């Protein structure tokens, strides 16, 4: 039984997911995106693709619509974006994926992770960013 006296790190959380996925690889078929914030490293995103690898990335995308937006994300992501720029980056990417992929829901749910905790935002379907009607 482990006793932890400080806040767990984003890396520790991602390694726990990695262990769970790898140890259950015969029953699971999923890629995981694990994000968090801790005092030592600030905001972090870890990608856990099929097979058990765990890699820290500046951003990660996944799901059925992700194949449509790799070029957009590679071109648009910039290191050091403000929170507002990050929210726009994510909302635009998800809206583009949803437009091309019929399995990608009808609204966007966002979570902002900071030292102050998690703040959740929703963008309803009638307020989604559009690119094709401009």
Which structural class is indicated by helix and strand composition?
A: alpha+beta
Helix and strand sequence: HEEEHHEE
Average pLDDT, all residues: 88
Number of strands: 5
How large, in whole angstroms, is the Cα Rg? 16 Å
Helical content band: 25-40%
User: How would the global form be characterised?
Assistant: globular
Distance between the termini: 58 Å
Please mark out the parts with pLDDT under 50 across 5 or more consecutive residues, or reply none: none
Taking strands numbered 1, 2, ... along the chain, how are they ordered across the largest sheet? 1-2-3
Overview of the molecule:
The protein has 134 residues and is α+β, with helices and mostly antiparallel strands. The protein is built from three helices and five strands. The strands form two sheets. It has a three-stranded antiparallel beta sheet, covered by helices on one side. A two-stranded antiparallel sheet has the order 4-5. The longest helix has 18 residues. It is globular, with a radius of gyration of 16 Å. The N and C termini lie far apart (58 Å). The relative contact order is 0.12. The model has no long low-confidence stretch (mean pLDDT 88).
Write the layout of secondary structure elements.
Blueprint: H1 10-23, E1 32-38, E2 42-48, E3 55-57, H2 70-76, H3 83-100, E4 108-114, E5 117-123
Antiparallel strand pairs: 1-2, 2-3, 4-5
Quick rundown:
With 134 residues, the protein is an alpha+beta fold. The chain contains three helices and five strands.
Identify the notable features of this structure and list them briefly:
134 residues, alpha+beta, 3-stranded antiparallel β-sheet, two-stranded antiparallel ribbon, globular
């Amino acid at each position: 039984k482990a006793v932890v006296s400080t806040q767990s790190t984003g890396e520790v959380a991602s390694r726990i997911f990695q262990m769970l996925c790898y140890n259950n690889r015969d029953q699971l078929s999923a890629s995981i995106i694990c994000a968090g914030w801790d005092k030592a490293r600030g905001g972090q995103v870890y990608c856990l693709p099929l097979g058990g690898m765990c890699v820290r990335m500046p951003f990660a995308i996944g799901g059925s619509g992700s194949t449509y937006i790799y070029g957009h994300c590679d071109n648009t992501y910039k290191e050091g974006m403000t929170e507002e720029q990050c929210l726009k980056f994510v909302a635009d990417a998800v809206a583009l994926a949803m437009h091309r992929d019929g399995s990608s829901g009808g609204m966007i749910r966002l979570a902002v992770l900071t030292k102050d905790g998690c703040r959740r935002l929703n963008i309803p379907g009638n307020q989604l960013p559009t690119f094709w009607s401009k």
